[in-house]
Write a structure and sequence with these properties.
This protein is mainly alpha-helical and 154 residues long. 57% of the residues lie in helices and 8% in strands.
């Protein structure tokens, strides 16, 4: 089924499978999550738009740039899961963060594939329905709004 989906994707979007393979081979380092290839010898940071040289297929320059300029920012912005919180609360929070960051629809929690994934990863976890997820998202929004208000008043 998964192979069929890749072929359907290639047919629908007019992408050759060779192109898909080449792009996969080129970007195996996690640092590629933060950079785009502009030309054969240049990359662009997705966070600050700075262009860097990309010579001999080495990701060292990108990695140094990311660590020096953005790694601490991401640690500050990443959700901190309270160690005293229950496993369910931690997973709920992770799902809410994923829905917000990736602009996923609330119906994600009703998708069979998502339910199967969570069941495989955490068999005892009970996935909340849309309504509690929506409440958690609204609560997170209000918290963030208050935080921004306080920062602006400084």
């Amino acid at each position: 089924m998964e192979i069929l989906c890749v072929f359907c994707f290639a047919l629908v979007f007019g992408v050759s499978l060779d192109t898909m393979d080449q792009s996969r081979k080129r970007k195996f380092s996690p640092v590629w999550d933060h950079f785009d290839l502009i030309t054969e010898n240049k990359v662009k940071c997705r966070i600050c738009s700075q262009e860097l040289s990309y010579i001999n297929r080495s990701t060292s320059t990108m990695l140094r740039h990311y660590r020096a300029r953005h790694e601490k920012e991401e640690q500050v912005n990443s959700p901190v899961i309270n160690t005293g919180a229950s496993r369910k609360q931690a997973i709920d929070e992770a799902i809410v963060n994923m829905i917000i960051k990736d602009c996923q629809p609330l119906s994600l929690v009703e998708d069979e594939g998502f339910k199967e994934l969570l069941q495989l990863l955490e068999p005892s976890y009970v996935l909340p329905s849309r309504k509690p997820i929506k409440t958690m998202i609204n609560q997170k929004y209000e918290e963030k709004k208050e935080q921004v208000k306080k920062e602006l008043l400084r």
